[in-house]
Amino acid sequence: GAMGGGIAQLAADKGWPVRMKDIRNEALALGYAQAAKIWQEKLKKRRMTRTEFAGKMSLLSGGLGWEGFDGCDVTVEAVLEKLAVKQAVLKEWEAVARPDAIFASNTSTLPITEIAKAAARPGRVVGMHFFNPVHKMPLVEVIFGEKTDPEVTATIFDLAKKMGKTPVVVKDAPGFLVNRILSPYLGEAVRLLLEGVPMEAIDKGMRKFGMPVGPIELLDDVGIDVAAKGAETLSAAWPERMPIDPAFGKLVTSGRLGRKTKKGFYRYEGDKRVGPDPQAYADLGVASPGSASLSQEALEARLIYPMINEAAYCLAEEIVPGPDKLDLAMIFGIGFPPFRGGPCAFADSRGASAVADALSRLASEKGPRFNPAPLLADMAKQGKTFFGKE
Fold this sequence. Notes:
By secondary structure, this protein is α/β, with parallel strands linked by helices. The chain contains 18 helices and 9 strands. The longest helix is centred in the N-terminal third of the chain and has 20 residues, at about 25-45. It starts with a helix and ends in an 8-residue tail after the last helix.
């Protein structure tokens, strides 16, 4: 798929030989096409010669079997976001890989400790989570499971840097850091749609806030099926804070997977987004789309404040060492507006009490998913900030 092809392209671009494997030739061809497309852009802009293009492409090879993997130092797994599938691939890989080779999973939500339970050598299993599109997004989450060797975590951290990325070491938990904080934001955007707020108004409001794309546009870009799978994992972990919305399932069963199928919340002509798809509202069961509206302030409270709340939970659980690393990951991972400083810095600019009060009001109106995190509630009471200034 797009992620696997993107990771292969990035490694080959740095001069490493890359071996790709899939279970269907069509999927392998997609990997090659994804890599070629990125280099063709460079070729078009004269940032690469035809000879260089041919040289880079020659570093990619692939097949349906495990031939060639016995010589690999690192294997990055980017298969379907299902625990059983990832564990089956891991077992197959261990049968052919060297004992000192590293299995790095590009999972976006599944805990590394769970994936590694299928391994004979769990110390060699680690998370290496890239963001889409791989060649543009600067962040890589490096996730260590309960049994991951520290040397393996350090190697993958170093590899991410050599690939030109900014790595952040993250503790193992469902959704890790970025997707866990992103999930309430995306879920709430879909609930606003179901309440009758037009998708273009939601997206425009968040672009005005400084996001590179709106949340509904982002769901189309990521893939509605991919987002639905991630939502299931996170909802199982925190059902009260991240209740799964049946809306996702409805869209997936009606074949609305987003940009990749040219059919999502929006309509597409080629690669171009050309406006909301009225049929998407019908598939969601929204009787009167466009019947509700929210002020910019109310929109920010509904979408951004739950992210701040989840950030507080992540810091309390020490998913990352501190608010500086958390803000860096959110800016580099999803394009949280840099001029806002990240969710923690933005919360400090608003004041913990203002954020906690707004969340409490939403909790009384919309349900317990908005209840302020204990850390945020304590900060509000004591007049404290994430970055330690009174």
